[in-house]
Design a protein that fits this description.
Layout: E1 9-12, E2 19-22, E3 31-40, E4 44-53, E5 55-60, H1 69-90, E6 94-102, E7 105-112, H2 119-124, H3 130-141, E8 144-150, E9 156-163
Parallel strand pairs: 5-6
Antiparallel strand pairs: 1-2, 3-4, 6-7, 7-9, 8-9
Helix pairs in contact: 1-3
Amino acid sequence: PSPIDVPPVHGVSPKSEKMLHREASDFEPLTGLVFKMVTDKFVGKLAFLRIYSVQLKKVQNIYNQRFSTNIEVVLYRTICELVNNSLQHSNATKIIINLTSTDSIIDLIFEDNGKGFDVSKVLHENTRGTGLRNMVSRIESVNGTYKFESKLKSGFKAIFSINTGRRHDKA
């Protein structure tokens, strides 16, 4: 259904245990409901959730520019993984996606205000961090660079830069 057709959601805050009222809106903090949990032998626990609202800000200067299909797919999958991780793991209420292009460089900066984590630990554990490692692999496959910044209780920031080696023309 359309967000304007969805009635407000009522629930209890996991932090304060206060009753909350949320409209289905881009201006409300992240609100979602895990409606199903399953265990998969390949990926572990999966949580199916419905998102009712999240503050999402996107900044871009890429309007009608096209890049190679490979770069576009890498960027799309990376953004999907970042948003999924924030919604599933971080308790973030805000997500900012900044995608810009200058001559031959594409920059993707992703930030959330979630609980943060030890990036080095997650990247090097075999049981966790497959999403981060997949992003690194994808970005490196198009000769891109990456940097992750996070501290406990301070959110997460990912910076990706891809040098396409050519000037982009508007399509």
